[in-house]
Amino acid sequence: MSKRFNTAGLCIPQYHYMVNISDKIVQIKEMIDAGNYFTINRARQFGKTTTLEMLRVSLKEEYVVLSLSFENLGTASFSEEKIFVKDFIEVVLIPELELQEMDFSNYIDKIRVDVMMLDRELNMARLSLLLSELCRISPKPVVMMIDEVDSASNNQVFLDFLAVLRNQYLKRTRIPTFQAVILAGVYDVRNLKKKLRPEDEHKYNSPWNIAADFDVDMSFSSKEIAGMLKEYEKEHQTGMDMEQIAEQIYEYTSGYPYLVSRICKLIDERMEDGWTREGVNGAVKQILAEASTLFDDMRKKIADFPELRNMLYAILFEGKNFPYNQYEESIDVGVMFGFIKEEQGNIAVANRIFEMWMYNLFLTEDVVRSEIYQRAALHKNQFIVNGQLDMEHVLRKFVDYFVDIYAENDEKFVEHNGRKLFLLYLKPIINGSGNFYIEAQTRDMKRTDVIVDYRGEQFIIELKIWHGEEYSRRGETQIFEYLQYYRKEKGYMLSFNFNKKKEAGVKKICCQGKEIVEAVV
What we know:
Elements: H1 22-33, E1 38-41, H2 48-59, E2 64-69, H3 81-98, H4 105-117, H5 124-137, E3 142-147, H6 156-170, E4 180-185, H7 222-236, H8 242-253, H9 257-269, H10 277-289, H11 293-304, H12 306-318, H13 329-336, E5 340-343, E6 346-349, H14 352-367, H15 371-378, E7 384-385, E8 388-389, H16 391-406, H17 411-430, E9 434-438, E10 447-454, E11 457-465, H18 469-486, E12 490-496, E13 505-511, E14 514-520
Parallel strand pairs: 1-4, 2-3, 3-4, 11-12, 12-14
Antiparallel strand pairs: 5-6, 7-8, 9-10, 10-11, 13-14
Helix pairs in contact: 1-2, 3-4, 5-6, 7-8, 9-10, 15-17
């Protein structure tokens, strides 16, 4: 049976092409060997479940590993203490003990009797004794891993369970307890903001303050992606340039595990261009077009936190910077869900695909009332010649439309809206056959570089606000350097110029042997 790329649940080495995460497993094992309790909190579809399974396999020679999940526990299980203890034992703990390679049958029989005989007296204190007894009789140190803790994290009973683990950890030199406890989920349970009973407010943030920091980078590097592609290429002999494809995938995803696997899966199963630059671009286009729980979550969180939405909008369209503040709830939520990150002290979108998706989201909100979008959509066929995009004509018509529609607006309007208007104009022209993205390192309040991929051809467009001749000359030098990097002989500039002596229109400039088409509005 041939292996496949997998984006649905647990990845299994004998069935799926996988990135080799052995280095990450080694780092996590070092934390376990040191006796740490910790949380693996990462965004959705970030490989948490697969990592826990690979960790279980690597630990089983040295430890008894209880690989548990709260996924099978419903809301009723957390309604009261007695029900939780009973369900935890019967639904979560016993089935896992029955799968262990060593015999825990005597212990299982004992706790079944306890559950039956002490039904009315089951509580966290009793569960603590049973867990300590398990650690005492085990022939090896016990590691407990619990996946899907998010399903429990807004319940008082769950906080009481964490308090049991914390108490055992603090007394670990006096009573038998776990070597390590790992909780996995999206939310960081060290920072719960939950509805506690008034008399229990003192427990806020305390049950899991024993947790060690988990700093293992679970994203995939370009080198790791190339290793997975090498395994695929060995079987399929496609002739792909593995390092180049891996680097391109990384540039789009920043190593987000689901996005990496999704691109590979789409290329393998659907892209006619195969393992080429065009194939990767086509897969990205497909990802942006398809419905997914990942994008649904992003949409909901952006809608739920207007301050976050406004910051993202200003970052993307106005080139503004905002300091990262982990105590700002909307920022913390965005980081926790994986679609923004801290970068050099500021907020940044986590990867290029998320950024492209956000551009589409914000632009779509303005499509209906945007006259420049409507004009571009109405006349889009004029920009395609023999199946290729005529970017020079695109810029020429943008100047005409912009002057016609927005000539009376002031400098402040253009500074806030100029780039958005160009992207709105560009969107219907390339829609269906191309993508665009912004080079994040060039995006500021004065300058932005837009990269357009259209049917295998790439266009470099610098958008800038005019700030004098000297600044304009620096811009020409910058785009020359950019064209050198992309190995292009022709580039494009769109200048928003407020000098009363300006000459609106399109002209061609020669800069160190490169041709630059500059449009001035």
